[in-house]
């Protein structure tokens, strides 16, 4: 579960309805492109890869928080963590990260956190694993890593 009573949904690209896929990507665009004024190509081709998992929660039939897990071979990669502004503070992103980590068995998990969120991700056990960098839109990011090889006992970080 995620948030008050919202189940986490998980699907590969081929399992997504066209409506759900559209809504997931619209949510990501709302958060990353519009709110954060980051003009970048969100649809980078990785959403459709066979090993990619999309996780999300819905309210009133619409996705309100999402993330994706990429299969990068020797590691799992969490990214595109987004929550609709009206839904923040309910624990939705934290629930999604916990659900993603439960699916990421057998390999380390990496992510590139927006730097202001490093403490939040540390609450799940992630540690800084590289130097901070500034992306093409001027947003500082920090590489982080969580070494897990079995189903993790995930800490209870709070939502941002």
Q: How does this model look, in words?
A:
The chain contains three helices and eight strands, in the order βαβββαβαβββ. By secondary structure, the chain is of the alpha+beta class. Strands 1, 2, 3, 4, 5, 6, 7 and 8 form an eight-stranded mixed sheet that branches. The longest helix is centred in the first third of the chain and has 18 residues, at 18-35. The chain starts with 8 loop residues before the first strand and ends in a 14-residue tail after the last strand. The model has no long low-confidence stretch (mean pLDDT 89).
- What's the N-to-C terminus distance? 17 Å
**Mean of the pLDDT scores?**
89
Beta-strand portion reads 25-35%
Report low-confidence residues grouped into runs of 5 or more. Answer: none
- Form type: globular
In terms of structural class, how would the helical and strand content be classed?
A: alpha+beta
Percent helix: 10-25%
Number of strand segments: 8
Which sheet architecture does the biggest sheet show? 8 strands, mixed
Radius of gyration: 15 Å
Count of runs of 4 or more consecutive helical residues = 3
- SSE run: EHEEEHEHEEE
For the structure shown, list the relevant keywords:
globular; single chain; 160 residues; alpha+beta
